[in-house]
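re the bet — no i am not wrong, look at it urself. input seq straight from the record:
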Amino acid sequence: MKRWLAAIPVVALLLFAVLALSQLLSPKKGDFERISRVAPDRMFETLDGSALTFAPPPGDESVMVNLFASWCAPCEAEHPRLMALSEQFPGRVYGVLYKDTETNGEDFLNRMGNPFTEVALDPDGQGGLDFGLTGVPETFVISSEGEILVHVSGPLDPNDVREVSGALNAPRN
């Protein structure tokens, strides 16, 4: 009988370990939110050789910034939604080519269509880290003051598109 009582803590520990492991292996979308809600103060070079910053972004309206790569299958899957957002918000959808070459990025956009007003280059990935990137694709809506209003981790789904559209349509303060 005493051996059975000694097994209770071991069984409880094993159950706890299984529960913890299952939570670690399947985080819910959005669990890795950034703490800072300000766009990174970084100057990006663009595909056309100009300079671009999102703190604050160009223009006097909020913009959407999508971090993507040509080697990223989920980026390809979400691309039709980016094209639709670009049509809905012309001049306000920007891309950041993350850890990729200019040639591969241009080939990707030529094949899929280019929804972006401009494409910033982030060959070493530091710009993505400054944004708080957890993995491509990720999308940010940035206010005209440089505040991050929306952060979508992973490919855009229809609910995310509604949230991004709402943030882009929101009146300025």
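see?? The first strand starts at residue 44 and ends at 45. told u. also Residues 2-25 form the longest helix (24 residues). so pay up
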